[in-house]
Design a protein that fits this description.
This protein has an eight-stranded mixed β-sheet. It has a five-stranded mixed β-sheet with strand order 13-12-14-15-16, sandwiched between helices. A three-stranded antiparallel β-sheet has the order 2-4-3. It folds into two domains: 241 residues, BirA Bifunctional Protein, domain 2; 81 residues, Rossmann fold. With 401 residues, the protein is α+β, with helices and mostly antiparallel strands. α1 runs antiparallel to α6 and α6 runs parallel beside α10. The protein is built from 15 helices and 16 strands. A hairpin with a 5-residue loop joins β3 and β4.
Length: 401
């Protein structure tokens, strides 16, 4: 039997999945964001230049190959780079102003599948361009909080600041000096990162490394006045809007393009892979991808990780179920169902069945009304209708249905 590829799962909890998309989409639109969809397949260079060659995504996890046209391409491992590419390609960076997008769809990373970590997974993401104010950073966080609150998902919010081009070089030097002192004790990945992007060592998953990094220089102690003021203002905005948070000095996110604000939402109810959303500011990325320097900030939510955490609303019956108890009436109920679908939900049975079976099927379909034509109703051009909520029934002319 042919089975799905390892780490690429079928979505069988479709109601939960659809409900998440519905809720997140509504909230994103309430915040003034518009839908964007980018290709699953992009040039590999897009992710090497944006995500960064020092990241595990580029170094180890991309589904990369040479296509029939000898192009070096890969399946997108994350969503931000593609949206930025579309933003620059459409010359929005030259036009100026603000642009706000949301998207959802599959991402691909070749890594060891485990609970909460798949090779094909889905994200809901938001990207905002042209707004450099820390209020937009806070807005991203408040939007995620609104989504999780609407879905009944508990969370903890972690915050950090990664500084900018003014304060990061100084911090990098002090961090490298610290790493030189313990170079023999840190893992091979951290030894490599020390030369490519030292700040990434703070994100190491090795317990031994994390124990050593307790004494590493702190990012927040090395911020310039502008970055420090922004971070203090961010904390004030969140506090005044009743958003609780904790400071995590080792939060750097897994991608090279972040600067200033970095944040992560975590859940204590899904095991080791506890991050359910994350993002931050990436003011340099548009310029990295040959666009005009444009401030930007965004986030992504991992959908599969939180499906089991969603509190589903109480099921409400809606629409009609049409059935026939006589073969001659089958075509008529099909026509009635087709007409009803122009205004509301309608399901139909293609076979004549007894009333008990039709009622059972209507209940399975979660219909509010069960509409049945029997032999007598067919002769009299009438239809029997039962309201399954109110348990009332009546026989009416077909013209009234």
């Amino acid at each position: 039997m042919i089975q799905s590829l390892r780490g690429m799962n079928d979505i069988l909890e479709s109601q939960r999945f659809e409900y998440f998309i519905e809720v997140a989409t509504k909230i994103a639109k309430n915040y003034g964001f518009s839908y964007i969809e980018t290709p699953l397949l992009e040039e590999t260079a897009l992710f090497k230049r944006s995500v960064g060659e020092s990241s595990d995504i580029v170094g180890k996890e991309m589904y990369q190959f040479i296509d029939k046209g000898e192009n070096d391409v890969c399946l997108r491992p994350e969503g931000t780079a593609g949206v930025v590419r579309a933003f620059v390609q459409s010359k929005f960076d030259k036009a100026g102003g603000t642009y706000k997008f949301f998207y959802h769809g599959p991402m691909f990373r070749y890594e060891r599948p485990q609970k909460g970590r798949l090779r094909e997974f889905h994200q809901f993401g938001v990207e905002s361009f042209g707004e450099g104010s820390v209020y937009e950073d806070a807005t991203m966080i408040m939007m995620i909080a609104d989504i999780f609150n609407a879905l009944g998902i508990g969370y903890r919010l972690k915050l950090n600041s990664l500084g900018d081009s003014n304060c990061m070089p100084q911090y990098r030097e002090s961090l490298v000096s610290f790493l030189d002192e313990c170079i023999e004790e840190i893992c091979e990945d951290c030894q490599r990162r020390k030369s490519t992007n030292p700040i990434r060592v703070l994100d190491c998953k090795s317990e031994k490394c994390q124990t050593l990094y307790v004494n590493a220089p702190k990012l927040l102690n090395n911020l310039c006045s502008v970055c420090n003021d922004d971070f203090e203002n961010l904390k004030k905005i969140l506090t005044s809007n009743n958003i609780n948070f904790e400071i995590d000095n080792h939060l750097v996110r897994g991608l090279d393009y972040y600067s200033k604000t970095a944040f992560e939402f975590v859940s204590d109810n899904i095991g080791a892979q506890s991050a359910i959303a994350g993002g931050g500011r990436y003011d340099r990325l548009v310029e990295f991808l040959d666009g005009k320097a444009t401030p930007a900030v965004g986030f992504a939510i991992g959908i599969e990780r939180l499906l089991e955490l969603i509190t589903m609303p109480e099921t409400v019956r809606d629409g009609y179920y049409f059935g026939a108890m006589d073969d001659e009436a089958v075509e008529l109920v099909i026509s009635l169902a087709q007409a009803k679908r122009k205004t509301e939900k309608a399901t139909v049975s293609y076979k004549s069945r007894n009333l008990k079976t039709h009622l059972k099927n209507a209940d399975k379909a979660n219909a509010q009304y069960c509409a049945i034509i029997g032999e007598n109703e067919f002769k009299e051009n009438k239809i029997w209708v039962k309201n399954l909520d109110e348990k009332t029934e009546q026989i009416i002319p077909i013209s009234e249905i």
